[in-house]
Write a structure and sequence with these properties.
By secondary structure, this protein is an alpha+beta fold. The protein has 2 domains: about 5-160, PhyR, sigma-like (SL) domain (Butyryl-CoA Dehydrogenase, subunit A, domain 3), CATH 1.20.140.160; about 160-285, Nuclear Transport Factor 2, Chain: A (Roll). The chain has 13 helices and 7 strands. It has helices at about 5-25, 30-45, 55-75, 90-100, 105-110, 115-125, 130-140, 140-160, 160-185, 185-195, 220-225, 230-235, 275-280, and strands at about 195-200, 215, 235-240, 245-250, 255-260, 270-275, 285. A hairpin with a 7-residue loop joins strand 4 (about 245-250) and strand 5 (about 255-260). The two termini are about 40 Å apart.
Length: about 290
């Protein structure tokens, strides 16, 4: 067996672990796959003849790659939506397991941490990596790394409240049902999900006429949603600025976001259709699996 083949086999043995680390650090399955692919490319270009623990070495690399992505995301104030890594189709069951193991509410809290805090907390508290190794990734002292993890731990324990977690679950349930009804052009199902006084607003980029739009009432909004069945077929759920929304991102390019207001009665009260490129660039978006 060629050396490259041996390396590929060894990497595949660690791939699931690396994806799990990257997903918890980045909160986005597509970004996690990008980080894992980057790690593979770095492995193929590195001299690993003296590496005694390949798994530990790969974890360090994927953590550094993820840290750079987090820092870039903070700098641009956006979370790009991208396709999954070429050559590896997403496994819905695997993605669901990852998402459930982290929890949407925790992802929202992690997104509020600084990149260094998030990495220290995830690697130490979730993957039991010693602070000496975490500090090497961050290029800080072990004591400074301990302080980062401690600060992150306090913030995670303080939020979200059970009410916030329940709110996110309610949002996802309603948004998922809305997307399914829109894909099928099911007018009755759409009306059932909408509050009778629901209001839909869209910016000038969201309509062919180039003017802002406002629709009021369940019937009018449902007709509009049913008419967009073709686009809904290629849309999916995402966390947008910490709330569940529907995004349309053909070829990984974010074009439209539907942000919802959901009542305690599981009814959609508002829909904000965002298509203005400037507004879209300011959003933090993380695709949700299984949608």
């Amino acid at each position: 067996m060629a050396e490259s083949d041996i390396l590929a086999v060894a990497f595949e043995q660690h791939r699931d672990h690396l994806r799990a680390v990257a997903y918890r650090l980045l909160g986005s399955m597509s970004d996690a796959d990008d980080a894992v692919q980057d790690t593979w490319l770095r492995l193929t270009g590195a001299d690993t003849s003296e590496v005694e623990n390949l798994g530990g070495w790969l974890t360090t690399i994927v953590a550094r790659v993820s840290l750079n992505m987090l820092r870039a995301r903070r700098h641009t104030q956006e979370e790009p939506v991208a396709d999954s890594t070429p050559g590896r189709a997403p496994d819905p069951e695997d993605e669901a397991v990852l998402a459930d193991s982290v929890g949407l509410a925790l992802l929202v809290v992690l997104d509020k941490l600084s990149p260094a805090e998030r990495l220290a907390f995830v690697l130490h508290d979730m993957f039991a990596m010693p602070f000496t190794e975490v500090s090497a990734v961050l290029r800080r002292s072990p004591e400074a790394t301990r302080q980062l993890a401690s600060r992150a731990r306090r913030r995670v324990r303080g939020a979200p409240s059970p009410d916030r977690a329940a709110d996110i679950a309610r949002q996802r349930e309603v948004a998922d049902a809305f997307l399914a009804a829109a894909r099928g052009g099911d007018f009755s199902a759409l009306v059932a999900l909408l509050d009778s006084d629901v209001v839909l607003t869209g910016d000038a980029f969201a309509t062919p006429l180039g003017r802002p739009v406002r629709l009021s009432g369940a019937a009018a909004v449902a007709r509009g949603a049913a008419a967009a069945a073709a686009r809904a077929e290629h849309s999916q759920l995402a966390l947008v600025n910490g709330s569940v929304a529907i995004v349309y991102a053909p070829a990984g390019q974010l074009q439209i976001v539907l942000a919802f207001g959901v009542s305690a009665e599981h009814k959609i009260t508002t829909i904000d259709v965002i298509a203005d490129p400037d507004r879209l660039r300011r959003l933090r978006v993380a695709l949700l699996p299984g949608a």
